[in-house]
Amino acid sequence: MFGEILPEKKFNQVVASPETILNCLCLNLVSLLLFSAFQQEVDEDRGTIQECLRGNREAFNVLVEKYYKKIYNLAYRFVGDAEEANDLAQEIFTAAYQNLRKFRGDAKFSTWLFQIATNRGKNRFKYLKRRGYFANRGQAESDDDRDSIQKVIPDLSTNPETLLASKQIQKIVQDAINELDPDHKEIVILRDIEGFSYDEIAQILNLPEGTTKSRLHRARMVVKEKLKKVLS
Amino acid sequence: MSECERISDLFGEVHDNQADGKIEQYVRDHLLDCPGCRESFKWYGYTVTALNGLDRISPPPDFLARLNTKLETSPSFFDFIRSLFAAVPRVPVPVGVSALALIVVLSIALYNNVPQVPISGTSTALEQTTPSPVAEARMAARDTRGLRAKSLASSTVHPMYALQARPEIESVAHRFPTVADRIGADNLTVESPSVDRAVESLKRILPDLQGRLVDEKIQQNMGDKILAVLIPSESYGHLTTELINHGAVAAGSADISHAPSKKEGNNVLLYIRFVHTR
């Protein structure tokens, strides 16, 4: 049929030889493999997890060593108290260890671990809040302490970075975080304190990126108002 | 929404360099002209800096040792309970109390309506002898005289048939309470198409039960008969089962001129009223 349309020579030039087709197919296959390899996030913990699942307890220690400081810090920011944070972090790792078989590997291990940490942290925060833990702590703080905070804070315009890093400001910020509602609190902790990207937060919290951004913005605005009230 | 509010909503994106060029320029232009927004954006920046600058808190030195110990020991029952309560979302007190009350009510209703006689074969009459107290109360409430509530079996089971089914009745009656068991030694009413025949049936079985007839009275105006019988306590279940198969129903003593039945030593004095099926 093509022969009728095209002169025979031209027709021969258009049709590729079988070798060329095979080469093209191979090239496509390699490209596809490379593409999928890049697409799939490399989880450096996968091997260690396999070891754990084979019953090697030492392998889990490797994972603990890698993440415990981060998890402890996150726990501390959720509950605002060293002893409670210690308990919470222990609980998070225990839960991860007991549920390791349920880890399917769809996401990175770190994402899964922080999912557990965030859920547990949020639940513990709610539990403490409804027991009046934070309110009691606020009352326990003496008026003298508050006065000393006010006196120590110098003019913000002189050296804001140094001032914002001071213990007093850190305490004000932590108190402001404690007053946030759990949904806003978790995003501030993950983004501004732990430094996760929006994409990672969306994965950990299973939220759309837009929701993450708007919640973060609202949380920051609340903290901003508290900070401004104290420092102005 | 004012322009300042719209700008304020974009602070996050601009601060995190997430906004595209046009939006960022739009915000920057507004900030140049609006001192209020400029001040607000400055504080927004301070806030993010303060949040980012929070110290990393180090875990206590014994953290890993404690965790290892915890992982090596299986979780205790206390830990399980604690985690259960810590994970449960907050339920307001009124909702919790209402839920608890609902559970209690449903449990009672379920308990009262649970089938009590798992009988097979020919013992359908027995199923009818053990209605729930709720059903009995309803039956009694429907009765205009307090005595006419119908037993389901009364009009369908012939006295002879009931006697034939006695072995099964006896065996089951030991295991399951009858209507009379539930109400205690109280008056019973037997509804029958032939009062005389029913009375005779009762008199016939009394010697077998080691009981005796104490008194017999006929109410002239209605043609009802009231019998006072004295029977040993252990025969009480047997007798009432027989009576129920003759159409006995639970009833109070309000409508009967006699005193209610009572226990006398090992014997029970029982008043039985026979009425015509109406």
Can you tell me about this structure?
- The complex is a heterodimer of chains A (about 230) and B (about 280).
- Chain A is mostly helical.
- Chain A has helices spanning about 1-5, 10-15, 20-40, 45-55, 55-80, 80-100, 110-130, 135-140, 145-150, 160-165, 165-180, 180-195, 200-205, 210-230.
- The longest helix of chain A has 23 residues, at about 55-80.
- Chain A is extended and about 80 Å long.
- In chain B, strands 1, 2, 3, 4, 5 and 6 form a 6-stranded mixed β-sheet that branches.
- The N and C termini of chain B lie far apart (about 80 Å).
- The chains are: A mainly alpha (about 230), B alpha+beta (about 280).
- The interface of A and B includes residues 86, 98, 124, 165 and 223 of A.
Would you spell out the secondary-structure blueprint of this structure?
The complex is a heterodimer of chains A (232) and B (278).
Chain A: H1 2-5, H2 8-14, H3 18-39, H4 46-53, H5 57-79, H6 82-98, H7 109-130, H8 133-140, H9 143-152, H10 160-164, H11 167-179, H12 182-193, H13 198-205, H14 209-231
Helix pairs in contact in A: 4-5, 5-6, 5-7, 6-7, 7-12, 7-13, 11-14, 12-14
Chain B: H1 3-9, H2 11-15, H3 21-33, H4 35-52, H5 63-72, H6 77-87, H7 93-113, H8 124-129, H9 133-142, H10 159-164, H11 166-175, H12 179-183, E1 188-192, H13 195-205, E2 212-219, E3 224-232, H14 236-245, E4 248-250, E5 262-264, E6 267-276
Parallel strand pairs in B: 1-6
Antiparallel strand pairs in B: 1-4, 2-3, 3-6, 5-6
Helix pairs in contact in B: 3-4, 11-14
Short summary of the structure?
The complex is a heterodimer of chains A (232) and B (278). Chain A has 232 residues and is mainly alpha-helical. Helices cover 78% and strands 0% of the residues of chain A.
Spans of chain A with pLDDT under 50 lasting ≥5 residues? 1-7
Shape of chain B: elongated
How many angstroms does the end-to-end distance of chain B come to?
81 Å
Helix content of chain B: 40-55%
Average predicted confidence as pLDDT of chain B: 70
The class by helix and strand makeup of chain B works out as: alpha+beta
By oligomeric state, this entry counts as heterodimer
C-alpha end-to-end distance of chain A? 85 Å
Strand content of chain A: under 5%
Helix content of chain A: over 70%
* Average residue pLDDT of chain A: 81
Estimate the global geometry of chain A from the Cα principal axes.
extended
State the order of secondary-structure elements of chain A, H for helix, E for strand.
HHHHHHHHHHHHHH
Query: Which regions of chain B are unreliable across 5 or more consecutive residues at pLDDT < 50?
Result: 117-186, 252-260
Residues in β-strands, percent of chain B: 5-15%
Q: Could you state the order of secondary-structure elements of chain B as H and E?
A: HHHHHHHHHHHHEHEEHEEE
Class of secondary structure makeup of chain A: mainly alpha
Largest β sheet strand count, sense and barrel closure of chain B: 6 strands, mixed
Biggest β-sheet description of chain A: none
How many H/I helices of chain A? 14
